[in-house]
């Protein structure tokens, strides 16, 4: 089996994502760059049908044109978005697309996510891209244009309007680590806003507020 250890690790990361509410049954997908022309990727419907309980043989080995070289399953319809990320960012080694519970609030409202936690500051902005339908060429093009503008920045994360999040880093484990950091940052942001609205935060402890308007 090609890339057995890497496919096994990808199964573990997918399971952790689902169990820790970093994605849901509506979807999510992960890819890892093995060479300039080969990638490993979670199959279509990994969440809806399998609840992210995958076996190494179900992880697909694909080329940059979407041809399946090995693996049991069908290619995710988000393949074009993953390839757009790799084309835009030559240093990218892994791409995670997910539907995290807390971060979806910002994605659905079209908000940029402020950094309340030091652990995410190295990302710079975490903005929400303008809406484009899931799996569409339009969405892949928007992702490419944005990531191209930040081609020298690794890691990078961006929210997809009404859809989810995209995290790009040099390795799978680093991308997963950043996904968790962002989700905790989203949770802290939401709780901080509630504290502010209740008048529990005053003076020097005033939180960095986010406004309820679209960033588009």
UniProtKB/TrEMBL annotation:
A single cellular component GO annotation: cytosol
Protein name in the entry: L-fuculose-phosphate aldolase
Pfam families (UniProt xref): Aldolase_II
Keywords, in A-Z order: Lyase, Metal-binding
UniProt xrefs under InterPro entries: Aldolase_class_II_sugar_metab, Aldolase_II/adducin_N, Aldolase_II/adducin_N_sf
Top-rank lineage group of the source organism: Bacteria
A Gene Ontology biological process term: pentose catabolic process
Source organism of the structure: Polycladomyces abyssicola
Domain Class II aldolase/adducin N-terminal, residue spans: 8-190
GO molecular function: aldehyde-lyase activity; metal ion binding
